[in-house]
Structures are given as C-alpha cells and as structure tokens.
TrEMBL record:
It is found in: Cell projection, Growth cone; Cytoplasm, Perinuclear region; Golgi apparatus; Midbody. Component of the exocyst complex involved in the docking of exocytic vesicles with fusion sites on the plasma membrane. It comes from Propithecus coquereli (Coquerel's sifaka). The gene is EXOC3. One of its GO terms (cellular component) is perinuclear region of cytoplasm. This is Exocyst complex component 3. It comes from the Eukaryota. Pfam families: Sec6 (PF06046). Keywords: Acetylation, Cell projection, Cytoplasm, Exocytosis, Golgi apparatus, Protein transport, Transport. The keyword ATP-binding does not apply. Its main location: other. InterPro entries: EXOC3/Sec6 (IPR010326), EXOC3/Sec6_C (IPR042532). The exocyst complex is composed of EXOC1, EXOC2, EXOC3, EXOC4, EXOC5, EXOC6, EXOC7 and EXOC8. Interacts with EXOC3L1. Interacts with BIRC6/bruce. Interacts with MYRIP. Interacts with SLC6A9. GO terms for biological process: exocyst localization; exocytosis; protein transport. Belongs to the SEC6 family.
C-alpha cells in the first residue's frame, strides 16, 4: 500500500506541476481544485457501483450453487429408484420377445401391403417398359424402369434394415424383379446407339439426344443418393451405381476413335495418293464434327458436362493415336512429307483447328503436338535417308538420259538466246525445286537440310558429269566421224556449266534466307568443277579446230609456203567457219575460246618458224619471207579482231610476235642482228636459247661466232617477265635442233 501511495503522490505532483507551469495559472488554483474534486467523486461513485455489482453477482452464484446441489441429490435418488425397478423388470422383458417378433412381422407386412399394388403390377410394367423401349419412347420407358427399381430397392432396403442376414428373402425379392436389370441393359443399349450417332442425331432430332442426356442425368442423381445412403446404412441395391455418365463419355470416345480409323478408304496398292486422301477426309470430318459440336451439341448437354471441351480432347487423342500408327508404318518419302505437313501445319491451320468457326473455344497454341518430337525426328531422318537415295538415283538416271542424247543425229535444242543446251540442268533443278518446295511446307529447318543435301549431291553429280564428258571426248577422238553432232553437243555441255552455275545461285537465293557457312562453302568447289568441265569442253572443241588445221599448219615456213601457199587463207577460213558454230557457245566461254584459239594459232605459227623447215639463202628470200609473215600476221589479226568484236576487248596482241620475228628475219645488216634479237628477247622473256638458235638458222646468214656471241650475251642479260605477260614461246619445243648443232 505504501508503494501505491507513493506512486499516487508522485503522479499527483506531476499533474500539479503540469497545471502550474505559468504564473497566471495560480489564479485558477481554486478552479483546478474543484475540477479535481468532481473527478474524484465520479471515480469513487464508479468504484462503489462496480463493487456492488460484483457483490450481487457473487450472491446470485452462491444461490444457484445451493440449488444445483439440491437437484443433484434428487437425481441421484431417482437413478437409484430406476436401478431398483430395472433389476425387478428383467424377467418381464424376456417374456415380451414374442411381442417384438410380432412387431417386426407387422412392419414387413405393412411394407408389403404398401407395395402390394406395385408388386402385382411388375409383369405388366415390365411389358410396357419393353414396348416403350422398342418404340423409342425412352423417357417414358425410363420412368417405368425407375418405378420398378424404386419398388425393388424399397423392398430390399426394408428387408436389409429388418434382417440384413436373411439372404433367402433378399434373393427372392431380387429374383422376382429379375427382369428389371434386363430392361436397364436394353435401355442402356438404346442410349448408347443414340450417342454413337449423336453428331447426326443432333442435326435431325435434337430432342432425342436431349432425352438421352436427361435419362443419364437422372441416373447420376439416383447414384449419388444411393451412395450417400450407403455411407449411413451400408445398403446398395443391385446394379448400382450405374455410372452412365462415365459410360457415355467412354462411348463417345470409342465413337470418335472409330470415326477417325474408318476414314481410310484406300491402300497404297490401290491408290498411291491413299495417305493424302485419308488425311484430307480426316481433316474434313473432324472440322465438320467439331463445328456441329460447338454450335449444336453444347445446347443438348448441361454446362458442367463441358461436352465440347471433352469432345475436342477425344478427337485430339484419337488423331494423335492414328498419327502414331501411320508414323510406325513403312512410309515412302512422299508419304512422310504428307504426314508431317498435315501434323505440323495443316492441323493447326485455318483449314482445321484454327478455323474461325471454332474460335475462341479452340486455341491452337494450347494443343499438344500430335506426334512427339522424337517420332518427328525419326520420320525426318527416314525422309532424308530416302530422299538421299532418290536424289542419287534421279541424278544418275538424268545423266544417263542426257548421255543418250549426245549420240543423236540431230542437233540439241537452243534456248531463247540461241545457245545450245540439253535438258539436263532443267531436269536436275526442277527435281531440286520440287523437293525444296515440299520441304518448305514442313519447316524452315528441313528446307535448309534438303538444300544442303541437294548441293552435296550436286557436287558428286558434277564429278560424274565431268568423267562422262571426258569419255565422250575420248570416244570421239577414236572415230571423229561419230557422233555426228559431237561439236554441237560439246557446246551444249559447255553451256550447261554456265546454266548450272546460275541455277545454283538462284536456288540458294530463293531457299536460303541467311547464307550459312556450311552451304556457302560448297559454292566455290562446284564453280571450280564446272569451270574445269567447261575448260575441258572448250579444249575439246578447239582440238577439233586444230586437228583440221594440222595439215595447213605444217605447210607454214616451208619452200611451198614461200613459193605461194594459201595455208593461212585456209586456216582463217577454217577457224572462222568453226567459230560460226561456236556462236552457240555462251559468252564467257566463247571469249575464253577465242583468246585461246588466237594464242594457239600464233604459237603454231611460231613453232613452224622454230622447226627450221626453211633456211633463207639470200637477202631477197629473207625479205620476201618476212613480208609474207607480216601480211599473214595482219590477216590473222583481222580474223581475231572480227571474232572478238562482241567482247569489247583487244585480242590481237599475239600477232605482234609474228611481226617481231619477221623483223629479225628481214634485217639486212647482220651487224645489227644482236640489237634486233635483244629487242625481241626483251619483249618476250620466255624465249630460250634454242629458239634464238633456230631463228638465226632460218635467216641462214649468221656466222658461227655471231651465233655464239648473241646467245652468250643474251644469257647474261636475261630479263624478268611482267605479271601481265602471256607466254608464247614456253610451249614451243625445238626437238631436233640444239645450240651445239647450230654452232657447227
């Protein structure tokens, strides 16, 4: 108490100090005292009221406890009296067992009397129900069936409740109502038949489908009620629960599966397009069915059945199973493409699940794949393997067909620009295009793989093409009379190389969005092979020219030539005639052929000089021969200028070499011979000492010492050729002439 008093005094001092902080507050001391006095009186009054209330409550509680104690005593005495009475009445209860049995029998008889009307009318109701089922009046039939089942279940429940161990009576009741289960099964068959044709029924007679759903819904309610009663009593009537809703979805699922499987009308043996036809029928049927389900069937089923969602899942699962079955078959390449295109593209496109009539209930982004990635990968691997074999076979067959054309007696066809060509490039790239277009329908990745495959096989094919072109050339050289159109078909082979190049570039530009390293690396190799084929082809064509020119080239720089041979005239006419045929060669290759023909004609002319077929014996002969060489050089220059007129480049520079050699031969002052030869060597650094010796031998007036001096001096001052210099003398051999012989 002392501690409490001290705390109260401290609190009071604190409150007073708070009130008297300013001098002007001293005037209000009396006012503060009165206010505190009122507060004190108020608190004391509340305390007194609270204490009084507590005291009243305690007084009331004590009074109730006394009353309860008295009641407990009374109950105890009453229980004692009841115990005494019960002990005295045990024998009396035993004597009432007959009364109890009578009560049970009375209860059974009361139930029997209550159901007597139904019991006697069971056979009639069974017949009526059977007739209604046969007539298709399913709702009325189900109502009768419910009455029968209700009577049976009621009787059995009463029997179970009174004597659950009496199986004889339960069997008797069940046997009497035995036809009920048969009627239930018969009605169920009718319901399942309607559900199997539900997509047709909903369009022709939707009320029939609604009746079926109502019957199923009634049975579901009865099942739930019976299961609830089972929890309380343990009694379940025979044939329950029926689970007709679950069976309904099972029937629908089997119906969907059968519908999908039944769309295959053909086999590969009867129709090569069997799979395309099969998939198209599936697409049409599934789309039509789902549209009907969305627009009509949902109106015949309760919302909680989610009939459209369930049907969608059933169709998706049935399609997935069917696609798995098809994928497991030994499909051909085109069939794999058809299957994958349908699975990966058609299924989710607007032609099927993405159709606007199915939106928004069907969201294609939420649909699971019909085939697993593993199965798709296996199919793609099989397709690529089969395609590789097919492409190899197609290319081989195309080349064999082209080879047969090479032996024809008629000229090859020309393109719109007049250039000879065969059908080989068109056939090859049409085949590539078809396969790439097919692959593009499946995926971008497969398209790229097929493009890489095509280019890889193109590499191998070009190697075989090169070998066949070489064999064609060799076969012709063994008998130049055959094939009859060798030149024309060799021109076509050369032109095909340019077509192949352009087609490869076009193919890559069309089907390859991003130039990938693996693909781009194949281009230089193919270009190299094609250039090699074209080079050999052009070489074979020029070989034809020079085989015909051989006789006339051999006349050059001979006595006959000096006396007035027309060899160069014939050479010019022959070359021009051949190049009229070579006008069918495409420009890049024709340009190279013209340049090579120009170089070879000049080289052959110079070879004729170096072979020492003539040795001039007088200045007059040297002058005549040199002037003839100059005239013929100009003649050749005119010819090749004419042939190269369409190329916009000067191709007559090689003829200057003939003029330069003629100047050495024409020189009249032997003392200037060294200077003239030095000039010749500086212009043409590939001249060797045997060439100089042969040239001096043709002049016929150089002394032994002069020859020796010129050769030795030129050897000491050898010049370096410029990068742009085209060597001419390098290919000219002087087999029967050497310096040692010249110096003798």
């Amino acid at each position: 108490m002392k501690e409490t008093d001290r705390e109260a005094v401290a609190t009071a001092v604190q409150r007073v100090a708070g009130m008297l902080q300013r001098p002007d507050q001293l005037d209000k001391v009396e006012q503060y005292r009165r206010r505190e006095a009122r507060k004190k009186a108020s608190v004391e009054a509340r305390l007194k009221a609270a204490i009084q209330s507590q005291l009243d409550g305690v007084r009331t509680g004590l009074s109730q406890l006394h009353s309860a104690l008295k009641d407990v005593g009374d109950i105890q005495r009453s229980l004692a009296d009841v115990s005494k009475d019960w002990r005295r009445s045990i024998n009396t209860i035993e004597s009432l067992r007959d009364v109890k049995d009578a009560v049970v029998q009375h209860s059974q008889l009361a139930a029997a009397v209550e159901n007597l009307k139904n019991i006697f009318s069971v056979p009639e109701i069974v017949r009526e129900t059977q007739d209604l089922i046969e007539q298709g009046a399913l709702l009325q039939a189900h109502r009768k069936l419910m009455d029968l089942e209700c009577s049976r279940d009621g009787l059995m429940y009463e029997q179970y409740r009174m004597d659950s161990g009496n199986t004889r009576d339960m069997t008797l009741i069940h046997g009497y109502f035995g036809s009920t289960q048969g009627l239930s099964d018969e009605l169920a068959k009718q319901l399942w038949m309607v559900l199997q044709r539900s997509l047709v029924t909903v369009r022709r007679d939707p009320t029939l489908l609604v009746s079926v759903v109502r019957i199923i819904e009634r049975e579901e309610k009865i099942d739930r009620r019976i299961l609830d009663r089972k929890k309380q009593t343990g009694f379940v009537p025979p044939g329950r629960p029926k689970n007709w809703k679950e069976k309904m979805f099972a029937i629908l699922e089997r119906t969907v599966t059968t519908r999908i499987e039944g769309t295959q009308a053909d086999t590969r043996e009867s129709d090569k397009m069997w799979l395309v036809r099969h998939l198209e029928i599936i697409r049409k049927y599934v789309l039509d069915d789902l549209i009907v389900a969305k627009n009509l069937m949902v109106q015949c089923f309760p919302p909680h059945y989610e009939i459209f969602k369930n049907l969608l899942n059933m169709y998706h699962q049935a399609l997935s199973t069917r696609m798995q079955e098809l994928a497991s078959e030994d499909l051909e390449a085109n069939e794999i493409v058809s299957l994958l295109t349908w699975v990966l593209n058609t299924y989710t496109s607007v032609e099927m699940m993405g159709n606007v009539e199915l939106a928004p209930e069907v969201d294609v982004s939420t649909l699971e794949p019909l085939l697993s990635p593993h199965v798709v990968s296996e199919l793609l691997d099989t397709y690529m393997s089969t395609l590789t074999s097919n492409i190899i076979a197609w290319l081989r067959k195309a080349l064999e067909t082209d080879k047969k054309d090479w032996a024809k007696e008629t000229e090859p066809e020309a393109d719109q620009d007049g250039y000879y060509q065969t059908t080989l490039p068109a056939i090859v790239f049409q085949m590539f295009e078809q396969n790439l277009q097919v692959a593009a329908q499946i995926s971008e990745d497969l398209k790229t793989k097929v493009l890489v495959l095509c280019l890889q096989q193109m590499n191998s094919f070009l190697s075989r093409y090169k070998e066949e072109a070489q064999l064609y050339r060799e076969e012709h050289l063994r008998d130049r009379q055959r094939p009859h159109c060798y030149v024309q078909y060799m021109i076509a082979i050369v032109n095909n190389c340019q077509t192949f190049k352009e087609s490869i570039v076009s193919l890559k530009r069309k089907y390859l969005k991003n130039e990938e390293e693996g693909v781009s690396l194949s281009q230089p190799h193919m270009d190299g092979v094609l250039d090699a084929i074209a080079k050999e082809g052009c070489g074979g064509l020029l070989e034809e020219v020079f085989l015909d020119l051989e006789q006339h080239l051999n006349e050059l720089m001979t006595k006959k030539w000096l006396l007035g041979s027309s060899a160069v005239d014939i050479i010019c006419v022959t070359v021009e005639d051949y190049f009229n045929d070579f006008a069918k060669v495409k420009k890049p290759y024709k340009k190279r052929m013209t340049a090579e023909a120009h170089r070879r004609v000049v080289v052959e002319y110079l070879r004729a000089v170096m072979q020492k077929r003539i040795s001039f014996r007088s200045p007059e002969e040297r002058k005549e021969g040199a002037e003839k060489m100059v005239r013929e050089a100009e003649q050749l220059r005119f010819l090749f200028r004419k042939l190269a007129s369409g190329f916009g480049e000067d191709m007559d520079g090689h003829c200057d070499t003939i003029v330069a050699v003629a100047e050495v031969i024409k020189l009249t002052d032997p003392s200037l011979l060294y200077l003239e030869v030095s000039t010749l060597v500086s212009k043409y650094p590939d001249i060797r000492e045997e060439h100089i010796g042969a040239l001096l031998a043709v002049r016929g007036d150089a002394s032994r010492d002069m020859k020796q001096t010129i050769v030795e001096t030129l050897e000491q001052g050898a010049t370096q050729a410029s990068p742009s210099y085209v060597p001419l003398f390098r290919d000219i051999a002087v087999p029967s002439l050497n310096v040692a012989k010249l110096l003798k």
